[in-house]
Amino acid sequence: MKTSLTPLALTLALATAHAAPVVYEIDPAHTYPSFEADHMGVSVWRGKFNSSKGKVVLDKAAGSGTVDIQIDPASVDFGHEQMNKVAKEAELLDVARFPTARYQGKLAGFVAGAPTRVEGELTLHGMTRPVNLTIASFKCVPHPMLKRELCGADATATFQRDEFGIEAGKPYGFKMDVNLRIQVEAVQAAS
C-alpha cells in the first residue's frame, strides 16, 4: 500500500520539524559578563570576566528556551592588576574554594520570537540565589563565515552581593548592590 502526504499534512510535518529547539554554543571570544560595584560611596568599580562558556537552547516558535553560562571567577579583570589579585582572594570571590560561577535560567516574555527576560539563578561564591535578567536587545542573524545562525543579546540585572556571602567593605559603608551585564553571542551548534 502506497502512502502519500496531503499538502496540509506535509505543511504540518515541516512546521513541526522546523519548530524544534536549537542549541547555540556560547562564543567565549564575544561573551563578557561584566559588573559594577560601589567603592566606599566615592566611585564605582567596573570589571568583567574574561573566560566564560555555555549554551543557549532556543525554540522561537514555541517561545521557550534555556540559558546555561559558566564563568571562571579567576578571569576577573578590573583593568588594575592589584584589584584583580584582591578580588580573587577569600574576602571577595575566593576562587580557590569557588572556581566556577554559573547562571542558569529559562528564556521568557517572548515577543515576535525573541525573549525579553531570563528567569534564573546565579551561583556565586558557593551560594545559589534567584537573579532575573532583563534582555535589552536580542537578535539572530546568519553568521557570514560559519553559515550557521548567530544570536546575540545584552542582558542586565542587579543583585545584592552580601546575599552570596560577599560582605567585604560592608562595615565601612560599601553598598552591596552589584549591577550585572551579560553581553553574549552564541553560534548554532554544528549538526
List the helices and strands and how they pair.
Blueprint: H1 7-18, E1 22-26, E2 32-39, E3 43-49, E4 52-59, E5 64-71, E6 76-77, H2 81-88, E7 101-108, E8 117-124, E9 127-130, E10 133-142, E11 149-160, E12 177-188
Description:
The protein is mainly β. The chain has one domain: Lipid/polyisoprenoid-binding, YceI-like (Lipocalin, Beta Barrel). Helices cover 10% and strands 48% of the residues. The chain has an 8-stranded antiparallel beta barrel with strand order 1-4-5-7-8-10-11-12. A hairpin with a 3-residue loop joins strand 2 and strand 3. The N terminus is likely disordered.
Outline, from the CA principal axes?
elongated
Structural class call reads mainly beta
Low-confidence stretches: 1-17
- From the 3D coordinates, which CATH architecture would you assign? Beta Barrel
Largest sheet: 8 strands, antiparallel, barrel
What pattern of helices and strands is seen along the backbone? HEEEEEEHEEEEEE
Characteristic terms for this protein:
mainly beta; Lipocalin; eight-stranded antiparallel β-barrel; 48% strand; disordered N terminus
Offer a concise description of the structure.
The chain is mainly beta and 191 residues long. The protein is 10% helix and 48% strand.
